[in-house]
Design goal:
This protein is about 40% helix and about 30% strand. The protein is of the alpha/beta class and about 100 residues long. The chain has a 5-stranded mixed sheet with strand order 1-3-2-4-5. The radius of gyration is 12 Å and the shape is globular. The protein starts with a strand and ends with a helix.
Length: about 100
């Protein structure tokens, strides 16, 4: 199940996982973000080694700026607390799956 993080908990959520972490930087008013949400949830449910962390940029803009997020949705893939890849904008299921497989 996705973890909703904030500026105070984000670093801990991505660092202490031991899994591939997909950080979903989103906004509640973003239609493409809403389209991505079920794809991300499904990807997390299907894989034991994937953790989904969601961060609403409207409430934690400082964290978004820190990670260079200038558009939503932005997905940042972390391994051991370090960024390994990112996707910006809504993507199709196949592109999301390929990104996960490439970073597992």
């Amino acid at each position: 199940m996705a973890v909703k993080a904030n500026g105070e908990t984000f670093e801990t959520e991505i660092a202490e996982s031991g899994k591939l972490v997909i950080a979903d930087f989103y906004s509640d008013s973003c239609v493409p973000c809403k389209r991505m949400s079920p794809l991300l949830a499904e990807a997390e449910e299907q894989r034991e080694n994937v953790k989904l962390v969601k961060l609403n940029i409207n409430f934690d803009a400082d964290t978004a700026v820190k990670y260079g997020v200038s558009a939503v949705p932005t997905l940042i893939f972390f391994k051991d607390g370090k960024e390994v890849s990112r996707l910006t904008g809504a993507v199709k299921r196949a592109e999301l799956e390929a990104a996960i497989e490439a970073n597992e």
